[in-house]
TrEMBL record:
It is found in: Cytoplasm. Pyruvate binds at residue 216. This is N-acetylneuraminate lyase. GO terms for cellular component: cytoplasm. Pathway: Amino-sugar metabolism; N-acetylneuraminate degradation. It comes from Littorina saxatilis. The active site is at residues 146, 176.
Length: 307
């Protein structure tokens, strides 16, 4: 059995893609080729699928498998987008184990798992035990913890998880940290001597993350260009330009909040960019046509799109 490369790292700019549904809430993959082309030509190197933006927790296991298969297949035809990280977190151990097995079978580059959020682990030790069982089902695939505590309600110490998991989860390669607490992100970057790769999942902290050595963001697909310019400016020590790009990203985050955030808002932004990725599935609801009209004007006003 081949072991996971100890030097494996996700590289480049990673998007958190949306999942398309019909107006009746049925899975609809007909929009996917257009969406893949958009990402592939807008500075995106890979995808973190079936997470928050992908409405993963609103999908059945079979739907998630089908989507994962399509994304892995899509990377065979893309020019730049080549990495697929499959989120396998569910509300129970057995389904996450099943999804881990499937992700490895289809050749995903890596898997990630968030904590179950109803019957929650009480401490980091319990979380390690849970993730150890999940990761063991994909022994040849790099594994990442997915910490998005403001959504799961699981407020554990990710840096401590990394410390405790060392030696217990052989495939562990790091964590995607979407926690909004900057000290928590900082702690993860030097846990276990900086051994693990940390990816950031908060669009408004990209510049701060770069300063901490976190150079792989998992962001909304429409932000690829912003991050490319931001990182180029950062690397060139042109901090004024980097700051301007981060401020634009922050303005987009604020716009998201004004309209409720999440997949409904992001799908509307994509429509404003000319890419229709369908509807959301209940309990989420689409923006109204009036809201989308107002959103378009707001995006023009902040300089994100042209008239």
């Amino acid at each position: 059995m081949a072991a996971v490369d100890p030097n494996f790292r996700v590289k480049g700019t990673i998007a958190a893609p949306l999942t398309s549904f019909t107006q009746d809430g049925e899975l609809d993959l007909s929009d996917m080729p257009t969406y893949v082309r958009f990402l592939d030509t807008h500075d995106i190197d890979g995808v973190f699928i079936l997470g928050t933006m992908g409405e993963g927790m609103s999908l059945t296991v079979e739907e998630r498998k089908k989507i994962a298969e399509e994304w892995v297949k899509a990377t065979k035809t893309t020019q730049r987008l080549k990495t697929v990280v499959v989120h396998i977190g569910t509300g129970n151990l057995k389904e996450s184990m099943e999804l881990a097995q499937h992700a490895e079978k289809i050749g995903a580059n890596a898997i990630a798992c968030m904590s179950p959020n109803y019957n929650k682990p009480k401490d980091e030790e319990a979380l390690v035990k849970y993730m150890k069982k999940v990761a063991a089902e994909a022994p040849k695939t790099p594994f990442y913890l997915y910490d998005i505590n403001f959504m799961t309600g699981v407020y554990l110490n990710t840096a401590r998880f990394l410390e405790l998991a060392t030696g217990q989860i052989p495939t562990l390669r790091g964590a995607k940290v979407s926690s909004r607490e900057l000290p928590a992100l900082t702690d993860c970057t030097y846990a276990v001597g900086g051994r693990y790769q940390i990816m950031i999942g908060t669009d408004e902290q990209m510049l701060t993350a770069l300063a901490l050595g976190v150079d792989v963001p998992v962001l909304n697909g429409f932000l690829g260009g912003i991050f490319t310019r931001l990182k180029a400016a950062f690397d060139a020590k042109d901090f004024d330009t980097a700051r301007k790009e981060q401020i634009l990203a922050r303005k987009l985050v604020l716009e998201r909040g004004r309209y409720g955030g999440g997949p409904p808002m992001v799908k509307s932004i994509m429509r404003c960019l000319g890419v229709d990725i369908g509807h959301v599935r209940l309990p989420l609801t689409d923006l109204t046509s009036e809201q989308e009209k107002n959103l378009r004007q707001d995006l023009i006003d902040i300089g994100f799109i042209e008239k």
